[in-house]
Amino acid sequence: MAGARNQEIRCEKCGKLVFVFEQLLGGIGCKEREEAYCPNCGNEVYAAMTDGTFLTKIIEEANEQSVNN
Ligand SMILES: [Zn+2]
Q1: How far away, in angstroms, is 44 Cα from ligand 1 center?
Q2: What is the tally of structural domains in the chain?
Q3: pTM flag (> 0.85)
Q4: Is the N or the C terminus of the chain less surrounded, counting Cβ atoms within 10 Å?
Q5: What is the Å distance from ligand 1's center to 61 Cα?
Q6: Does residue 1 form part of some domain?
Q7: Which domain holds residue 29?
Q8: Dist. CA 58 → ligand 1 center (Å)
């Protein structure tokens, strides 16, 4: 079944925008509750039943001050 749940979620703890995307693992057929965690601070940002897993990535925002200067 297509239509993975991809979404942007604002981390309540650190304020980063986190892109959460669902990676479906075919052929297992066993739905479990999986959590998605903020890659920046480890806070749980999303949880849902899935037969795959959730991957996360920080979305760098253009107006954010860079720490690499
Ligand atoms: Zn966070």
Answers
A1: 8
A2: 1
A3: no
A4: C
A5: 14
A6: no
A7: 7-59
A8: 9
> Could you report the per-residue pLDDT of 1-36, keeping only the tens digit for each?
345 579 999 999 999 999 999 998 876 667 889 999
Quick check: is 40 in a domain? yes
Ligand 1 centroid to residue 18 C-alpha, Å: 8
Reported as a single tens digit per residue, the pLDDT across 42-51 is 999 999 999 8
Question: Quick one: how far is CA 14 from the chain centroid?
Answer: 14
In a domain, 66, yes or no: no
Give a yes or no: residue 24 inside a domain.
yes
**Contacting residues for 28 by C-beta, under 8 A, at least 6 apart:** 51
Tokens for 54? Answer: 């959730």
Say how many Å lie between the CA of residue 47 and the centre of ligand 1. 15
